[in-house]
Amino acid sequence: MQNWFIALAVAVLLLIGFAAGPMSVVVAFLAFWVTLYLVWARELGFKDTWSRYGLQRVKPPFWAAENKVWFFPIFDDRAKVVKAAAVPLLIIALSLMLPTSVVRIGTLLVLAWYCLEIYRSQKGLDQLDRARFN
Fold first, then answer.
1. Buried b (16+ CB within 10 A) or exposed e, 1-18
2. What is the Cβ-side half-sphere exposure of residue 83, based on CA atoms within 13 angstroms?
3. Is residue 103 within 8 Å of residue 95, measured between CB atoms?
4. 20 to 30 A from 115, CA-CA: which of 73, 80, 84, 87?
5. Rg for the chain, CA atoms, rounded
6. What is the average pLDDT across 39-58?
7. Measured torsion, CA atoms of residues 83, 91, 71, 11, in degrees rounded to the nearest 10
8. For residues 115 and 38, what is the distance between their CA atoms, to the nearest angstrom?
9. Spatial contact of 91 and 107, defined as CB atoms under 8 Å apart
10. pLDDT at residue 69 tops 90
């Protein structure tokens, strides 16, 4: 089943590349990873998400067998992956319909708002953690 998701992702990136240009593939790829991180961070918090990703333990090349231990748990929750895949498609679709500068500003505003909401929701938990160690 994992191979079908990889094939679908490559096909979507190829379609985006032909529709909006080669740079849009890079934008879509980065938007996917940032969105997936933020979707996990909403549930776990910023620090716990970073440790769950385990990116500090990944060694090049990324497709090596030992790195699969860190990458596959990220994709276990398929609802989060679908949400993260929908955001780059929305960004590219809006950039094809609206001026690019408007889409960039709107994307940055939504990103800042979402990060602020995650921070505000996790702020109480961080204060409780500090109180335990004092």
1. eeeeeeeeeeebbeebbe
2. 12
3. yes
4. 73
5. 17
6. 79
7. 100
8. 7
9. yes
10. no
Model confidence pLDDT, tens digit, residues 7-24? 887 888 888 888 888 898
Query: How would you write the chain as a 3-class SS string?
Result: CHHHHHHHHHHHHHHHHHHHCHHHHHHHHHHHHHHHHHHHHHHHCHHHHHHHHCHHHCCCCCCCHHHHHHHHHHHCCHHHHHHHHHHHHHHHHHHHHCCHHHHHHHHHHHHHHHHHHHHHHHHHHHHHHHHHHC
Q: Crossing angle, helix 22-44 and helix 100-133, to 10 degrees?
A: 30
100 token code pair: 């690019």
Q: How far apart are the first and last CA of the chain?
A: 48
Could you tell me the CA-to-CA distances from 105 to 17, 37, 99, 100 in Å, in that order? 22, 20, 10, 9
Q: CA nearest 91: which of 32, 8, 10?
A: 32
